[in-house]
Amino acid sequence: MKILVALKRVADPDNANKVKIPASGEKIDTTGLEWKPNPFDEYALEAALRLTENGTQPKVRAGEVVVVTFGPKETETTLRAALATGADRAIRVDASDDKLDGDLVARALKALVEKEKPDVVLMGKQAVDGDSNQVGQILAELLDWPMATFAATIREEAGALLVGREVDGGVSTLRVKLPAVVTVDLRIVAPTSVYSTKTPSTHKYNDGVRFAALPAIMAAKKKPLVEVKLADLAPDQALKVSYHGFAAPPARKAGIKVKDVSELVSKLKNEAKVL
Amino acid sequence: MTALPEGFFEAVARDFPADFLSVDPSDLATFGRDWTKVHEPRPAAVALPRTTDEVSRLLQLCTAFQVPIVPSGGRTGLAAGAVAAKGEVVVSLSRMRRMNAVDVLGATVRVQAGAVTEEVHRHVAEHGLTWPVDFASKGSSQVGGNIATNAGGVKVIRYGLTRQWVLGLEVVLASGEVLELGGALEKNNTGIDLRQLFIGSEGTLGIITEATLKLTRLPGKLDVLLFAVPNLAGVLALFKEARTGPFVITAYEFFTEKCMARVRRHRSVREPLSAPSDYYVLLEVERAEPEALEAWIGSLFERGVVTDGTLAQHAGEAAAIWALREGISESLSATGMPHKNDIALPIQDLEGFCAELESVFEARYPGWEIALFGHIGDGNLHVNVMKPDAMEKAAFLARTHEADHTMFELVRKYRGSISAEHGIGLLKKDYLGYSRSGTEIEIMRAIKQALDPLGIMNPGKVF
Ligand SMILES: Cc1cc2nc3c(=O)[nH]c(=O)nc-3n(C[C@H](O)[C@H](O)[C@H](O)COP(=O)(O)OP(=O)(O)OC[C@H]3O[C@@H](n4cnc5c(N)ncnc54)[C@H](O)[C@@H]3O)c2cc1C
Fold first, then answer.
1. Is B68 near ligand 1, meaning CB less than 6 Å away?
2. Nearest residue of A to residue B306, measured between CA atoms
3. Is the ipTM of this complex over 0.90?
4. Which of A268, B37, B151, B164 is the most buried (most CB within 10 A)?
């Protein structure tokens, strides 16, 4: 199976250098920010690796995992890390973060999919910076492919994927014929969430995303990473979304200490009005 | 509650705000002990001053009434230094957490002793600075406690102990007199440096109320690596390689699979390696050129110095690797009862020492679980003997007490220390003689006598 994984880098919220917004409110000041892969996209990569291996022999890849990101040269760090974790090839679509929106990314991905012809496109359900939750859905529509969003489990079948999605009140299970677009939720990296046809059903993965092993980190230097011009994939670079202003959320008020439970209850009732 | 001299409560009630002193049983239980769980907390009261002046007036009263006190910080101490088990008044600095503006030019900051270590880090990070006293309890420990224990931690190999990062102190003596020691000067050779006496004094000489901290620039780019090595000799062989590696070492920590297993039992863990290893080394380095670092790593694999490993690919992964190491103390306590020892050895003797230690363990604790970890780059070993689940606490403590003598005899033989960084407190008091001579202990007592003639400051601790 050949899988294309879309990876976005996002500002690391745990970093000491927080996102800053200049007084004009025009844009976000990205100087000094540290970056990390969007967690949901990391989960998508982990799912792709699980789908292209026998879980008991994770060093052997059965199939191909291609990772793609949109961004400036520095985003290649994110791609190299993905190669170290197990992806086979990487593509960087040269672009500047503030000249992209979900629609443009989806259109460019469509062109890339037509070239690469993967069986599955996997990505996170959304990026934690903009929380837009659009690219997977727009891409499926443009390709006219089956789609499963918010995947919590994936089981490979012949020519199809059986996808479990957590919905209100239970799990809905979809069988999508390949090729398909799947976006993943956080439970996809639980120990028994993803099975390829090669992985025995008794196998349990470690919880979470795998770390890259040192020898693989070094071998990743030699894996192919190519740059593609955005214009070659999407000649029309007009954006559908335009941002009109940014503002930092109001600072949190300091907490207070209450004397006893009855004071707590009274405050919850009369001040917070949540009871 | 133990009785205090008649009139003491009335005097406090007259001179201090209503919420100054608590005798609430839950406060007594909380403030009466530190991280250790060996002694039952039994303080007579807990005082919660807001200013140096309140501390001073309280100590005047305590001197007048001859009331013993226990200075108390974040209560994360591991030597039972902040334990009040004999009807003392606990003086908690937890309301004294003011932090002044950072002096960016001088790279200093003045804080009250109750400021939490991690709050200080946040406060100064805005200016690209840090106070490099760093360990797992930083979210609760206080500057005053750090200074009173001369705390070490995971960055000692790079920055040294707390002592190196304290320029000035304000302390209150048992008499209530307030002393300003050192100010904000880097250089001040004017006789015996009294400030140094209070650093590491574990609350026996006076109460630290404010400190001027020396700061340093936040480190440059850090890389965090985790390695699998087969045994302790492998930990030391890798250390030798790291010493000459193309970077500045900021941390060199090791832990065993037994520690990892306890962490796994306690909380969910993101497995760092594809398979568990008997010994792990966490190496953090600063200012490594990626190519040079990789060449160095490559040669480790070629020569079989390490068998597996990972390099954090971004800050989140680095934090996840650190969490494994930093979670150990908490996970050991959450899943069982550890008997902790914190010893230091000259690094070149570690291997010989550990080989002999092995035989002590076999004789004293046949088949028991022993969790080893530590700041091995400083020759510092944390030895945690876990209580067998079926054993009574009292029998366990008796057994470890006995075995400690055998272990400390070995420490003495190798010219090590029976307490590398946690201090002596109540817990290691009986063993002080293994590391300090009779004359040294006499001099310590004489110093205490000079500063605290009535012996009301943390009585019964250290010596
Ligand atoms: C998970 C964990 C990890 C740890 N890791 C390390 C480590 O790596 N390295 C290390 O060195 N320690 C470590 N410790 C031990 C402990 O956190 C440190 O010793 C810390 O500096 C204690 O600070 P505290 O404010 O909690 O002090 P407390 O426990 O409250 O007090 C410690 C001693 O200092 C005295 N004291 C406290 N405040 C004052 C004051 N204002 N004036 C005078 N005396 C005072 C007390 O009387 C007592 O004797 C660890 C503890 C835990 C729980």
1. no
2. A214
3. no
4. B151
